[in-house]
Design goal:
CATH superfamily of the largest domain: Adenylosuccinate Synthetase, subunit A, domain 1
Bound molecules: inosinic acid
Distance between the termini: 8 Å
Strand order of the largest sheet: 9-7-5-2-10-1-11-15-18-19
Radius of gyration: 22 Å
Helix content: 25-40%
Number of helices: 13
Shape: globular
Largest sheet: 10 strands, mixed
Number of strands: 19
Strand content: 15-25%
């Protein structure tokens, strides 16, 4: 058995795209298990920049199977566009793409409602700062037992009935928030049928395919989306996404038992960023925040929003390690932190507060300078490092500190956007 789960350990945007891209080179199958097109990463294939939001990063490797599992919510119009583009580049051929019959569909009215709610702040509502991709409303329809699944798309009569059931709940809210016309169900059904005919041959029991692949000794990579602190149960609720982003989401999202999981790696930046609203204890003061944003190019891949930036929060990272069961840590953007003057790190919260007990909106981070960062040529040495030994002493000491506080070994270090700028300390698949 050789499986690897990779999840974000912060609030998303930890550089999962690059790390998964590197690790997927050794995978036979890459599986997304939660979320939808609220995620996004950029791949460079034959010099062309391709942004994927639904299809896992493994798609760049011909022969690697890409699975969209049942725990996802899938916007079929976005998926079609993405798959068309990838196929035009010679990717996702044959049976390399599979979509779970039981995954739920993000409807155009879910997306519309997401936006209407965000704009209705103040009228008895508060904005979360969502990506406005309809993710929350689609998951609400799912747990409300009125959602539309991928399998429903292939039976137009059943589809219309499912949509009517969903709209019986959604239509009053749409209208209250300013939508003028009711949803035209026959037209929507026609659009969906036309947009998803191609999907029927690739829709299947994804959990079964994953199980068989593992049983056959294949290397299977489970690719998380968003991050631990956006988990609907264990994140900074209510400023979270609507799915389980942590490793447990693999079991419920794919339909496989925990005994099937091997390594679980968490990805964290050497500092912290967040988009959308909600608490962020280690957010830097404005000048330092802008320095981090500039150095790290911290603008959202999905929405283009500037990210809030701050220092690494070790208590929060230790919490992420616990709720995911991390066996390894991948530290990204070490080069960016190396280029920043006088960085800080949060080693604990005042008064012994801990995430999980005290809401992050109430903790007071204890921030310390990272020692030795004024060493001349630090950023250059990080960028040039070909192995752990080449990293400057203060950087190695910082990584040791992270390991010690979090209690999980560092297994991969990213020192630049390029795939070659990756120091691998442990093989992902045994
Ligand atoms: P939603 O997932 O669009 O409902 O947004 C809920 C919260 O999760 C908002 O704060 C978003 O900014 C955040 N979020 C969702 N997806 C991502 C992601 O891929 N990276 C970072 N933040 C995300």
């Amino acid at each position: 058995m050789s499986t690897l789960v990779v999840t974000g350990a912060q609030w998303g945007d930890e550089g999962k795209g690059k790390v998964v891209d590197v690790l997927a080179a050794d995978a036979d199958m890459v599986v997304r298990f939660a979320g939808g097109n609220n995620a996004g990463h950029t791949l460079v294939v034959d010099g062309a920049k391709l942004v994927t939001h639904l299809v896992p990063s493994g798609c760049r490797y011909p022969g690697t199977a890409c699975m969209l599992a049942a725990g996802m919510v899938i916007d079929p119009f976005v998926l079609r566009e993405e798959v068309d583009t990838l196929r035009a580049h010679g990717l996702l051929q044959g049976d390399e793409l599979a979509v779970a019959l039981d995954a739920h569909v993000v409807m155009p009215y879910h997306r519309e409602l997401d936006g209407l709610r965000e704009e209705a702040e103040g009228r008895g509502r508060f904005a979360v700062g969502t990506t406005r991709r309809g993710i929350g409303p689609a998951y609400e329809s799912k747990v409300g037992r009125r959602g539309v699944r991928i399998r429903d798309l292939f039976d137009p009569n059943a589809l219309a009935a499912r949509i009517e059931a969903d709209l019986a709940v959604i239509e009053p809210e749409r209208r209250a928030l300013g939508a003028r016309e009711p949803v035209d169900v026959p037209r929507l059904v026609d659009r969906l049928v036309e947009a998803t005919a191609w999907l029927e041959p690739v829709a299947c029991d994804v959990g079964g395919r994953v199980f068989d692949a593992v049983a056959a000794g294949r290397n299977v990579l489970f690719e998380g989306a968003q991050g631990a602190l956006l988990d609907v149960d264990f994140g900074t609720y209510p400023y979270v996404t609507s799915s389980n982003t942590t490793a447990g989401g693999v079991c419920t999202g794919v339909g496989v038992g925990p005994g099937l999981l091997g390594e679980v790696w968490g990805i964290t930046k050497a500092y912290t960023t967040r988009v959308g609203r909600g608490p962020f204890p280690t957010r830097a003061e404005p000048a330092a925040e802008q320095a981090l944003r500039d150095a790290g190019g911290e603008y959202g891949a999905t929405t283009g929003r500037p990210r809030d930036c701050g220092w690494l929060d070790l208590p929060a990272l230790r919490y992420a390690a616990r709720i995911n069961g991390y066996t390894g840590l991948c530290i990204t953007k070490v080069d960016v932190l190396a280029a920043v003057e006088r960085p800080l790190v949060c080693t604990r919260y005042a008064d012994g507060a801990e995430p999980g007990t005290t809401p992050l909106s109430q903790v007071r981070p204890v921030l310390e300078p990272i020692e030795g960062w004024d060493e001349p040529g630090l950023a250059r040495a990080v960028a040039a490092a070909a192995s752990l030994r080449d990293l400057p002493g203060p950087v190695r000491a910082y990584l040791d500190r992270i390991e010690a506080v979090v209690g999980v070994p560092v297994v991969l270090i990213s020192t630049g956007a390029d795939r070659a700028k990756t120091l691998r300390l442990r093989q992902p698949f045994q």
